[in-house]
Every structure is written in structure tokens, then in C-alpha cells.
Amino acid sequence: MNEFTDEWAEAIRDYLVAQRAAGAPSTTCNTRRQHLEHLARRVSAGPWSLSGEALVAYCGAQEWKPETRRSRRTTFRSFWSWAYATGLCEVNTALALPKVKPGQARPRPTPERVYEHALARSDERLRLILRLAHDAGLRRSEIAQVHSDDLFEDLTGWSLRVHGKGSKERDVPLTPRLALELRSLPYGWAFPGDDGGHLSPRWVGKLATNVLPDHWTLHTLRHSFGTRIYAHSDLAVAQAALGHASPATTRIYVVVPDERIRGAVLAAAG
């Protein structure tokens, strides 16, 4: 692995300026920067001389899961489309990349015993992080950005305005315990840090990984939330609570209870 050149550094910097000017959230910009820097360190050509064949060879050499591969392809398509449109390159290099089929992802909700064990190993701040994923279904980037200004009360209780992916917002009802914990914090960010005043999403995820065993993560706690919501309602409610644009995405998050399947089979059989 090599240090990337000044040409790559300038190209990535200018691309991210254009992304921010277009309203891309900081989480998207950070992800795309990481994708491009990973590429820049592993190819010998500059961004405007890299061939489509070399880009395909780089992607083909990586041991990525399908969703990771799809995400990298999206970044590269965006980067070279911007460069082609602005006249920085004569060919859109990323057009050489083949389409990537979605992976057959399966829900992986964290067992309650694992969650309870993680809570027991956590301090007060980390327990709140875990509860925001388990009880409210927040992503790590959303947890990082929780602010007291986003708490509000309506006729049925307290809710949190969540700043989700793609600058989309959703209102998530809070359990009484979670609402009380958030309301008890000082004014400002729930988790102060150096990333615009709050902790970075990466650090939030790392903190949780330190107390969650095996391969359980904040994301699998989010799967748990979606599965419990679906068990007590339907797919549309789970989709809204999780902040998904498509019900197909929500199906990746929720486990259909066996008793529901059995009940449907018996009912269909008369």
C-alpha cells in the first residue's frame, strides 16, 4: 500500500467540495473520501490517467461483500461523472465497472441476552448509545448527531427528530426511560466530541463494539429494533420507524416470527 499522490489528493479534495456544494451530508462525504483514498493508495496511475481496465482490476481484487461493492461502485461513478462533466478527464473511467447485484442479506437481530450483557459492561454514556440503537433504531451517524434541540413533546409523549442518511429527517417516538435520559442531559450535543462538536459516527460505533461480543454491532441492534416493531405492527410501520425509502430494504432488517408464518399457513389451509 502506497501514499497517494498530490494529484489524487487535489482531485479528491475538489470532488468533496463539489459534493458539499450539492448538499451531500458529511457522512456521505467521509465515506466517499475513504473509498477514493483506498483506491488511490492501490493503483499506480493518477485519477485522470487510470484506465477502466485498471479500475475493474482493482475492484475485482478486493474481498468485498456485495453491498460494500455496490457502495464503492456508486462512489466511483459519482467521482468520474463529476470529473467528466467538469472537463478534468476525457473519459468517464467508471463506466467500465459492471453492475453489482444486491447481496442476499439476512436479518441479524442482536439477542436480548447479548444486549443486556453489553449494558452491564457499559458506563452511563455508552448505555445511552446502546439504547438509542436498541430502543429507537438509530444508526451510528444518527446517534452521533443527537441534540437537545431535537427533543419535542406532543400529545402522546416525547419524540426525537432524527437526522438520517441523505439529509432526510424522521420523528421517532421515545420510550419514557429513553426520553428521560435524554432530557436529563445538559443542553447541546448528547455526545460532545471533535467532529463538528459531537462524536464521530466511527467513534460511536467503536465504543459500542468494545462491549458487544463477537460480531454484534450497533447495526445489529438496529435489526433488533426493526424486528420488534414488525412483530407488533406491520412492514410499513417498521419502514417508517427505521427511516427506509424502500420496504425492500426493511425486509433485510426484520425477522418474520415463526408463529406468524405458522398461523398464516394454518389459516390458508382452512
From TrEMBL:
InterPro entries: DNA_brk_join_enz, Integrase-like_cat_sf, Integrase_catalytic, Tyrosine_recombinase_XerCD. CDD domains: DNA_BRE_C. It holds the Pfam family Phage_integrase. The keyword Nucleotide-binding does not apply. Keywords: DNA recombination. Residues 105-266 form the Tyr recombinase domain. This is Tyrosine-type recombinase/integrase.
